[in-house]
Amino acid sequence: MSLGGLFALLCIEIDGCSGDRRARYGALIAAAYGLGLFLAGVSWVYVSLSVFGGMPAAVAGLATVLFCLVLAVFPALAGALFVGFAVVGWWRRGLLFASLWMLAECLRAWAFTGFPWLAAGYSQTPPSPLAGYAALLGVHGVSFVSALLGTLIFEVGRRCLSTEPCSTRGWLHRFPALPLLAGAAILVTGDRLRDLRWTEVAGEPLSVALLQGNVAQEMKWRPERFFDSLRTYYRLAQEHPAQLTVLPETALPAFLDQVPAEYLDALQKLALRQHGDLLLGIAVADGKQYFNAAVSLGASGQQHYSKVHLVPFGEFVPPGFAWFMAMANIPMSNFTAGSPGQPPLRLAGQRVGVNICYEDVFGEEIIAALPAATLLINISNVAWFGDSLAPAQHLQIARMRALETGRMMLRATNTGMTAIVDVDGRVLSSLPPFTRGALVGEVRGHTGATPYVRWGHWPVIVCAVLLIALLGRRRAVLRKQVLVQRETK
C-alpha cells in the first residue's frame, strides 16, 4: 500500500534528522506524495476546463497544477506533524500516522467548501475486507484503518529484512509476529463485519429504469439540439416502463418553465401507466435565482429537490474569481444553493433521498436524509470530464455511500457510470459508459440506521484527537525525563 511507503519514508526522516529540519522535510515528502496523488487522480479537472470549458490549454493546465498544489498542503501538514512529533515505538508511530492522515482528510473535506475526493477509504470498496468498517466508521474511519494497516505491512517487511542481531534489541523487536497478527486481526474483523446487516428490507420490490441519454457535452447546450434531447429521453422512458424512472442531472438543457407543457404531460402519462413516478434532472428558475434541481412527475404528485452543496467554479463563482470564469464557457455556472434539510421525496411507495452529482462525495450530508429515506438516488452529468478517471471514481464513491448508510444507491448519469449499487457496496448492474440506453432492474427500500448514520464521523475524529493528545503527552513526559537525567549527570 502506498501509504505504507509514505510512512516508511517519513520514519527514515525521523531517524535521520533532528530539529526544525525534520518537520520541514517531513512536510516536503508528504507534499510530494500528495501532489503525485492528486495530479494523477484529479487530472480530469484539466479536461473539464480545457476540452469542455473552452479555457486555453496553458491556463487550464496551470489552474490544474495550482489546484493540486493546494490539495497537497493537507498531506504536507500531516507529514510535518508526524515527523515533528517523532514518537518512539512502531505501534505508537502507526497510530499517530493513521490519526494525522485521517484528520488531514477530514480537514480537506471541510475547508473551502470541501474536496474529499480521493480519500484513502474509497480504495477499500468490496471485495476489500476493510469495506466492513464503513457502516461503523464512515469513509474517513476506513482511511484510518487503511493507513494503520499500511504501517503494519511496512513494519512486518522491516523486521523480516532486518540484519540486526536479535540480542541487540530483543527478540520482540525483531520477530514480525506482533505487527503481522495486528494486521491479520484488522483484516479478519473487517471481513466479518461485512457479513453484518444493519438495515432491514422495507416494502415490495420496485422496478426502476435509469436512463442514460449519452448526449455529448459539447452538443448538449446547442439550441438546435434541444428537441433531440427531449426525443431521446421520451423514447427511452417509453421503451422501458418501470414504477420509478430516473433521468440524469440537467437531462433537459433548459429551465423547467421553458419545456413545452405537453412534453411534461407526456412524461407524466408514461409514469402513470405504471402507477409510478418519474424523476427528472432540470434547472428550475425562481425569479432571478435558479437551482440545479430534480423534479418528480407521476402518481405521487410534483415534488422537487434543489441541490444544496454546489461545486465552486462549476455551479457558483467564488468571490473574486469572476475573471477566471470569464475564460471558461460553462453554462449555468451561478446556481443558488437549495435549503438544507429538505425532506426525502415520496416516490413509487419509497422515501427517496435525492442527491445531485458532487453531493454524494459528502457522506455526512447524505446521512442528513436518514434514517427517514429508504432509498438513495444520485443523478449526475459527468460528461464534463470526458473519458477520464472521474466517472469510475464517482461510482466508487457511490458504493461507499451505500456501505455507510445500508441503503441501495441508484445512479442515473448522462454518459456513465449509470449503476444499481446494493447495500453491501456491490454493483448489481451497470450500463457501459458512452452508450445510450436504460438500466432496468428491481430494487428494495431499507429501514434502520447504521452506526455511521447515527453518529457520523465524530466518533473517529474525537478518538484520533485523543490518541494524538495521549501520544503527545507521553512524548513530553519522556523528554522531561531525558532532560532530568542530563541535569543529574
Automatic annotation (TrEMBL):
The chain crosses the membrane at residues 26-47, 59-88, 94-118, 130-154, 455-472. It is found in: Cell membrane. The keyword Transferase applies. Residues 211-445 form the CN hydrolase domain. Its main location: membrane. One of its GO terms (biological process) is lipoprotein biosynthetic process. GO terms for cellular component: plasma membrane. It is a multi-pass membrane protein. It is an enzyme of class 2 (transferase). Keywords: Acyltransferase, Cell membrane, Membrane, Transferase, Transmembrane, Transmembrane helix. InterPro entries: Apolipo_AcylTrfase (IPR004563), C-N_Hydrolase (IPR003010), C-N_Hydrolase_sf (IPR036526), LNT_N (IPR045378). Pathway: Protein modification; lipoprotein biosynthesis (N-acyl transfer). Its EC number is 2.3.1.269. The keyword Transferase applies. Signal peptide: none annotated. CDD domains: ALP_N-acyl_transferase. It comes from the Bacteria. Catalyzes the phospholipid dependent N-acylation of the N-terminal cysteine of apolipoprotein, the last step in lipoprotein maturation. NCBIfam families: lnt (TIGR00546). HAMAP family: Lnt. Belongs to the CN hydrolase family. Apolipoprotein N-acyltransferase subfamily. This is Apolipoprotein N-acyltransferase. It comes from Candidatus Accumulibacter cognatus. The gene is lnt.
